UniProtKB/TrEMBL annotation:
Transmembrane segments: none annotated. InterPro entries: Ald_DH/histidinol_DH, Ald_DH_C, Ald_DH_CS_CYS, Ald_DH_N, Aldehyde_DH_dom, MeMal-semiAld_DH. It comes from Kerstersia gyiorum. This is methylmalonate-semialdehyde dehydrogenase (CoA acylating). Keywords: NAD, Oxidoreductase.
Length: 504
């Protein structure tokens, strides 16, 4: 932590429709994980700067809430076009600060774009209901109205997609918003916010505040913030959920995972192995939806040598190298943690089939690289199984039957996503019905649904009953007001007093 420098860009906040240069004396370096080069500095916002952002959002809500659905839709239409036009620039910024490969970064932008496209349908999504003549001469109807000021706190691993999981739907519903992106990867998020303002988002409707735990706690506590969305680790997400709900806020908290993939012996072998490795090692394993545990059923356990061989053939390199299969981890601290967990697996009796520690990339010797790593013989109780590694480490377990594999997965407390690879419709249907996980893939390695379906992680991977995207996002970012109305003729007689609760 240091004072701001002039040798690298100083990332501003974004308050009231324009960049705001922080007065903070506390700044963090933003580094390129392939080189350790400092590419920018980001401030830890002062309490006064947080107040400025909230006050701006409060003021803007008074007019934005009354902006027509059609006008809000047109802003989203312009934003989706601007994102398309700036995909390459957004991807380059993601790769520079996160490390993921350019093709993977471009894919991230595309998944974020899906949510903005879904928000373009707000004119048909934010509709209430009406029952005409629910009682004699009485109409009952519901309105979906914006909450007020919302806030979002995002993790480092998807600096464009995760903000898109939050603010487009929130502001399309008529709310104003304060975003606290990860301080490790701020630049692509800032470009996304600038594009939103170019698309016509009015000043104060979308604000950005940078910082760490103190800023996150301020957003949880602030009385003018009505709802908060979080995506990140389980420890932080649990803290955010408890603190914000105690302050009376509506909260959705998407947290950590330990995702499993069942591989049946009747699966298409090449497709199953390739998809499994892509899920486990893409983004260097830094995905909450990575299938990091493969449960090999029956004769599929004989595929271990081929899984290891194909893993060994994958190549790590800087994200700018389009031939690289995976990039570096986000920080030296992340690399050290992954390597420590690999060592714990060895010490606790798992078989290390492929060791990615000490991986070197020519010309990038200071990069945070860990090569693809594979363990077999993994069991619950081992640290590598019980913790989310968040690195390029694939764990292999085995069972004799599909029933045992389902029981194995259901015994794990997390429930973000799971997949099965099989040629049997019966096995797939049994799996989807009996598995206790919120998002299921059938011959799909990363079961994140398209954006017009909701993100439905479950159990220990989620706190709050409504997830991002789809119809659940509309429910989360609006409040339902029900109106019961009767209109009398101007010359109608008053009749007698009715002291019952019933309407006729």
């Amino acid at each position: 932590m240091s004072s701001p420098q002039t040798a690298v860009p100083c990332i501003p906040h974004f308050i009231d429709g324009k960049p705001y240069q922080s007065r903070s004396t506390q700044w963090l370096d933003v580094t390129n994980p392939a080189t350790q080069e400092v590419v920018a500095q980001v401030p830890l916002a002062t309490p006064e700067e947080v107040e400025l952002a909230v006050a701006s959002a409060v003021r803007a809500f008074q007019s934005w809430r009354n902006t027509s659905l059609g006008a809000r839709m047109r802003v989203m239409l312009r934003l989706q076009q601007l994102i398309r036009e700036h995909t390459a620039q957004l991807a380059e910024l993601i790769t520079r600060e996160h490390g993921k490969t350019l093709p993977d970064a471009e894919g991230e932008v595309a998944r974020g774009l899906e949510v903005v496209e879904h928000a373009c349908a707000i004119t048909t999504l934010q509709l209430g209901e009406i029952a005409e003549n629910a009682a004699t001469g009485v109409d009952v109807y519901s309105l979906l109205q914006p909450l007020g000021v919302g806030a979002g706190i995002t993790a480092f691993n998807f600096p464009v997609m995760l903000p898109c999981f939050m603010f487009p739907m929130a502001i399309a519903c008529g709310n104003t918003f304060i975003l606290k992106p990860s301080e490790q990867v701020p630049s692509s998020t800032m470009l996304l916010v600038e594009l939103a303002h170019q698309a016509g988002v009015p000043p104060g409707v979308l604000n950005v505040i940078h910082g760490g735990a103190d800023v996150a706690n301020s957003l949880c506590d602030h009385p003018d913030i009505r709802a908060l969305s979080f995506i990140g680790s389980t420890a932080v997400g649990t803290h955010i959920y408890r603190r914000a709900t105690e302050a009376g806020k509506r909260v959705q908290s998407m947290m950590g995972a330990k995702n499993h993939c069942i591989v049946m012996p009747d699966a298409h072998k090449d497709q199953a192995i390739n998809n499994l490795l892509g899920s486990a090692f893409g983004a260097a394993g830094q995905r909450c939806m990575a299938n990091s545990v493969a449960v090999l059923v029956g004769q599929a356990r004989d595929w271990v040598p081929e899984i290891v061989a194909r893993s060994r053939a994958l190549r790590a390199g800087p994200g700018t190298d389009r031939a690289a299969d995976l990039g570096p981890l986000v920080s030296p601290r992340a690399r050290a943690r992954v390597e420590r967990l690999i060592q714990s697996g060895v010490e606790q009796g798992a078989q290390l089939e492929l060791d990615g520690r000490g991986y070197q990339v020519s010309g990038y010797e200071r990069g945070n690289f860990v090569g693809p790593s594979v363990f077999s013989g993994v069991r619950p109780g081992m640290e590598i199984y019980d913790q989310e590694i968040f690195g390029p480490v694939l764990l292999l377990a085995g069972t004799d039957s599909l029933d045992e594999a389902i029981a194995f997965i259901n015994a794990n407390p997390n429930g973000n996503g799971t997949s099965i690879f099989t040629s049997s419709g019966w096995a797939a249907r049994k799996f989807q019905n009996e598995i206790d996980v919120g998002q299921v893939g059938i011959n799909v390695p990363i079961p994140v649904p398209v954006a017009y379906f909701s993100f439905t992680g479950s159990r220990a991977s989620k706190l709050g009953d409504l997830g991002p995207n789809g119809k659940q996002a509309i429910s989360f970012w609006t409040q339902t007001k029900t109106v019961t109305a009767r209109w009398f003729q101007p010359d109608a007689e008053g009749g007698s007093v009715n002291t019952t609760i019933a309407m006729k």
